[in-house]
Specification:
Main location: nucleus
Number of strands: 5
Protein name: Spi-C transcription factor (Spi-1/PU.1 related)
Order of helices and strands: HHEHEEHHEEHHH
Subcellular location: Nucleus
Structural class: alpha+beta
Family: Belongs to the ETS family.
Shape: globular
GO molecular function: DNA-binding transcription factor activity, RNA polymerase II-specific; sequence-specific DNA binding
Helix content: 40-55%
Number of helices: 8
DNA sequence: GTTATCGGGAAAACAC
DNA sequence: AGTGTTTTCCCGATAA
């Protein structure tokens, strides 16, 4: 069995764990809603539709070269910022459990990239190459939510989150692209997260979206009101 | 000169 | 207890 299969099995096990938690998790008892297909398709529509040849990407992962610490930025696809209902979804804080791995920053970012509610903070620059960028205006909000999700004592800032991202340059999950606020996923990470999302999109995603509903009601992370701007932002 | 962003060392904190 | 992964703080460099 390949390591990918092992990974997938682990994710399935985790998903089952999440589903089981669902049955007795007060956060997940009510108003159980999650990504409806139209939402999924709507965010797909906001990705710049560009022919692959037009967007070579900052780094060709097929090349057998070493992982660069800084990717020379070439010609990334146009960045498009769309208006969305201005509120954030925030997943539950980490809950310890058997076989439950701690959520990692790059996983959170990948989730955020698939969530239309965070499109005003983080977007794919070129999804094909795994390149994404933060929106200058709202990047701090995303960082703040990350910090809250992790249950940090102090407020997470973009600067601190970016420091964590720079650590990924050493381990290879994400590298910095030579463009303002722009980073790039390792393709194997994208592949893994994609498989995970394909499953969680139908099973576990509800967990954190529903949790946000609960969380926002508590007023602990009232980003619903802090994101009322409907202006089109640009990096 | 100012501001925003980036890069990384170092140590603390935390989870597994 | 050991290890891995942030988190936090800090300082300097670079670009706009």
């Amino acid at each position: 069995m390949s390591s990918l299969d092992n990974d997938i099995n682990q994710h399935f096990q985790d998903a089952i764990d999440v589903i089981q938690r669902h049955s007795d998790d007060p956060y997940c008892d009510t108003e159980y809603k999650y990504f409806e297909p139209p939402m999924r398709s709507s965010i797909m529509c906001c990705y710049p539709i560009t022919h692959p040849s037009d967007v070579p990407g900052p780094y060709d992962w097929n090349e057998q070269t070493s992982w660069p610490h800084v990717v020379p930025y070439g010609s990334l696809g146009p960045s498009v910022t769309m208006d969305y209902p201005q509120f954030y979804s925030i997943a539950p804080p980490p809950r310890s459990g058997k076989g439950r791995k701690k959520l990692r920053l790059y996983e959170y970012l990948h989730e955020a990239l698939g969530d239309p509610n965070t499109a005003d903070s983080i977007q794919w620059t070129d999804r094909g190459s795994g390149t994404f960028h933060f929106i200058s205006k709202n990047k701090e909000k995303l960082a703040e939510c990350w910090g809250k999700r992790k249950g940090n004592r102090k407020t997470m800032t973009y600067q601190k989150m970016a420091r964590a991202l720079r650590n990924y340059s050493r381990t290879g999950e994400i590298v910095k692209v030579r463009r303002k606020l722009t980073y790039q996923f390792n393709p194997s990470i994208i592949q893994r997260l994609g498989a995970e999302q394909a499953y969680y999109g139908s099973a576990a995603a509800p967990d954190w979206h529903n949790w946000y509903g609960h969380y926002s009601l508590q007023g602990d992370c009232d980003l619903a009101t802090s994101f009322t701007s409907s202006t089109v932002t640009k990096v």
